[in-house]
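Notes to self after the Tuesday call (sharing in case useful).
The group wants a holo model before anyone commits to mutagenesis around the pocket. I volunteered. Ligand is alpha-L-arabinofuranose. Logging inputs and output together so the record is complete.
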Amino acid sequence: MEKYLINPNQKIGKINKDIYGHFSEHLGRCIYEGIYVGDNSKIPNVNGMRCDVVNALKDMGLPVLRWPGGCFADEYHWKDGIGPKESRKKMINTHWGGVVEDNSFGTHEYFELCRQLGCDTYINGNVGSGTVQEMSEWVEYMTSDGISPMAQLRKENGQEKPWKIKYFGVGNESWGCGGNMDPEYYGCLYKRYNTYCRDYSGNEHINRIACGPNVDDYHWTKEVMDKVKHHAQGISLHYYTIPGDTWEHKGSATDFDTREYYKTISKAYRMEELINNHLAVMNSINPQKWVNLVVDEWGTWYDVEPGTNPGFLYQQNTMRDAIVAALTLNIFNKHSDRVIMANIAQTVNVLQSVILTDGEKMVLTPTYHVFKMFKDHQENTLLGSYITTDTINNAHSAFPQLIESASVDENGVIYSTVANTSATKSSKIKCQIADTKVSTVKAQIITGDIHDMNDFNSPDVVKIVDFTDFRQLKDGFTANIPPCSVVKFVIE
Ligand code: AHR
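Result:
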């Protein structure tokens, strides 16, 4: 029997809801078809946004949405996406699939989407192929409430009041698709571009995000931190879980064996090491901890579904992805003192999506159900917690069988989420909640075979159901956590 201790006396800090954030790029069928169908579509929509998708995302509790990219951000010229739709410039989306981008979804449409979702905004600016003036004017266009050329243009385009930007990214992957720069050079550029992204009185302070490292590039973190530490609120980390060993063979989203399952989980668990190591580098340069970590691209990345455009990055989603999501969100919760935002890639129809669409059909993936299950943690207080667990060893690394986190809401209700990463073994746990008399315990579960998934013909194979294999105790509970499962306990 594993011992699980939750300590309500150890209140660690607030879990920023933004670590449950999402990312949607002009890539494949994410924005177009997946979210935006235009107001002439037969698919029910409000101002062009699909009602089914918007409602599902609201229900899941999407707190913040990153847009317009990704690699697309450094090719995006925002003025192409404003004004009358019929006169907006058409271009080829050279990075993603070579398809025509008609710019019908632009700045106004993004803010309309966020209004419908009731979420905060995270815009990524163009450093790679854009100018300082272009970025400066975009921020002015969106947030200035004074007398200014860009505020005037916004009003002419139908938006009287400025919008609010919570986060603004100055470049994306500037070490790669965003310009192939060296960290010293990017750090200097960041300061220059950022200087002219003003905080206008119509907006609260913009949290500025500098382009951080790819995976374990600690040199990038060190050099960029050195330059931006007085000028940024966050630095980003991009880390994708790719089971295969090369870009050409990333592995199938659905056709994998147990060995590949464990390889995927061990690679996903690497997030813990990466956060710890990058924070250590950041703290050595900025011991005051002004700059926080933002994991603004994460998730699984497999080979595209057979027969689909390789540039669209469309992949299915199984219980394996649910376990990746649950273990990663538990890791983010535990680091919520310094990880202030994270954005899974990408919301609809791209990589580890929470929603897949096909014409007017929509399906919620196993990953969706994990986000929905975990939404209770948002803005709660993280509690000290510890669980004993077996370690799963594979050829790549070792990782815990059980990965958990616990939080408390303002009414004193405790939420604990536990992922069992084993494909075959259940685990008995005894949970004790320090200095607490427990009156009720309720639980829910997402579980199945590692290959289980939802598709358009069978949309409810994986879903959240009540979990009853537990026994309440005076100060906690015992439970038998099934293999390949995610369980949430709600303790009052
Ligand atoms: O999410 C897909 C791509 O992955 C993004 O555009 C880019 O930033 C990253 O390389």
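Two things stood out.
The longest strand covers residues 2-14.
The first helix runs from residue 51 to 60.
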